[in-house]
Each structure stands twice: as C-alpha cells, then as structure tokens.
Specification:
By secondary structure, this protein is mainly α. The chain has 9 helices and 2 strands; from the N terminus they run H-H-H-H-H-H-H-H-H-E-E.
C-alpha cells in the first residue's frame, strides 16, 4: 500500500513552516509511524462512512436509528473536512490539488452534507441524489493503491483498440437487430428496429433477459449464431486490456543498469544480465 503524493514541485520546501512539512509527511508519506497511523485511520473512516450511507438506505434501519446515523454522518463529514483542509494547507499549490482527480473526490466526499443544510425540503429528489453522492468516498481509497497508475496506463494504451472493437460490436448489433425485425416482425414482439437492436445487445452480451424471444425457425437460428458469437466477442476486450496491463506492469517494474543501461523488467533480478553489475 502506497499513498498517492503530489508532484515534487508542490511539496513543501525547507524554508516553509516546519509544521507544514510534518503535516505533509503524515498525510502523503506512508513510511513514517505517523503516516502509517494516518493511513489506517483514514481507511477505517472511509469504510465506516460508506457503511453508514448504505445503512441509511434501508428503511427499517433508517426509521429506528435515524438520529444515530445522522450524527455519525456529520462526524465523518467533519473528519473528512479536516483532512481535506489539511491536504490543501500542506502543499505549495493548493489549487492544483483542489482541481486534481483526488482533490475533486475528496471534495465530493464532504460537499453533499453541507449542501443539504441549504436545500429546501421541497426538493426531496435533489437531497436524495446529494446523499447518494457520498458513496464517492469509496474512491478516496485510490489514494492508497500503487497499482492505480498501472491500470490507468493500460487503459490509455488500449483505448483505441477497444474503441474499434466497440464500433464493430455496434455495427453487428445494428445489422442483427434490423434482420430480426424483418424476420420476426411485430407479431412476435419485435415492434421496431431499435427494439430489435436492444434484443441483439442483450443476446450478444449473453445477458438474456427473456422479455423478447424469436419464434420463427430462421429467427431462432440467428439467435443461436449471435449467442455463439457473444462468447468469442467477450474475450476480445479482456485480451486487449490484459496485454496492455502486462506491458504497463513491466514498464513500471523496469530498472536500468547504471553501467551498461540495460533495461531489466524482472523485479527479483539483483544483477544486470549483460554486465553482471548489481542494481542500486
């Protein structure tokens, strides 16, 4: 587990206040005793706060423990507010952290509770949506995942291939849905081409709701072909992403020999395979 840290240029310098440097070490460094304690406490708080949000959606629990759940919610909101302010205080460019992905997530973790204070009771749906936004707190766990960079790198590297794959699937379901509309017709439930495309998507993805089914022999034959095709299609994006993920993991773990500049991707290697010099 490794905490996400701001760029080096946003870290406090030696000439800044000592308390800022100490606060930065606690919040963004995980190797110090204070940093480890902060990590564990924050993980527990995130888990408990998300549990409170989920319990609040259960009517029987909400009716019996409404006051307790509300008090717990404000306790967690207060803790996350202090954490958010502390993060802004201990970095040199607070605005850069505020507009970053993790800064926005931290803000979404506390903002709904404060907005609820100023929302009229007439806007019940708005209040409900704002309360549900509190589950974004679970994304705060991304601060502690070192592998997040690897996943993001793999997704970026595979996005073009996956987009081509998605467009191909869209073309297939449009053609299949149109053919099923022509073959089955309104009498068998295929009332329009969009409804036929919906059926093709459900069938190709092997979900199979069963709300609409082909009845003619030709329609059933086409449905069988789409079902078989679905098993092969599902494996394509998985293979693309797995390949890019492996490449990203190798790039992350790669080390360069200081003597001959040979790139070594094996994390367990202690010596350069070309010149035999030990890795630093």
């Amino acid at each position: 587990m490794k905490k996400r840290r701001p760029p080096a240029e946003d870290r406090p310098t030696d000439d800044q206040a000592a308390w800022k440097r100490r606060l930065y070490c606690i919040i963004f460094e995980s190797k110090t005793p204070g940093g480890k304690a902060f990590d564990v406490s924050l993980l527990i708080a995130i888990g408990l706060s998300v549990t409170v949000v989920m319990l609040e959606s259960v009517k029987s629990i909400q009716a019996e423990y409404a006051i307790l759940l509300r008090d717990l919610e404000w306790i967690f909101t207060g803790l996350f507010t202090i954490e958010y302010i502390a993060r802004l205080l201990c970095v040199r460019r607070a605005w850069r952290y505020a507009v970053s992905f993790y800064g926005i997530i931290d803000l979404l973790a506390i903002l709904p509770s404060y907005i609820n204070l100023f929302t009229s009771a007439n806007y019940v749906m708005v209040v409900r949506v704002l309360r549900l936004l509190r589950v974004f707190r679970v994304l705060k766990l991304a601060h502690f995942l070192e592998e997040t960079d690897t996943l993001v790198t793999a997704l970026r590297a595979s996005r073009r291939k996956i987009m081509v794959f998605i467009f191909t699937v869209l073309a297939v379901v449009i053609v299949m849905g149109t053919l099923m509309y022509l073959i089955e017709g309104e009498a068998n439930g295929f009332t329009s081409i969009p409804y036929g495309i919906y059926w093709a998507i459900v069938t190709l993805t092997t979900v199979g709701y069963g709300d609409i089914t082909p009845h003619t022999p030709l329609g059933q034959l086409m449905a069988s072909l789409i079902m078989i095709m679905g098993y092969g299609i599902i494996a394509v994006p998985t293979g693309i992403f797995s390949m890019e993920l492996r490449q990203a993991a190798k790039a992350r773990d790669a080390r360069v020999c200081a003597n001959c500049e040979t790139v070594e991707s094996d994390r367990a290697a202690r010596f350069c395979r070309r010149c035999g010099k030990p890795f630093a």
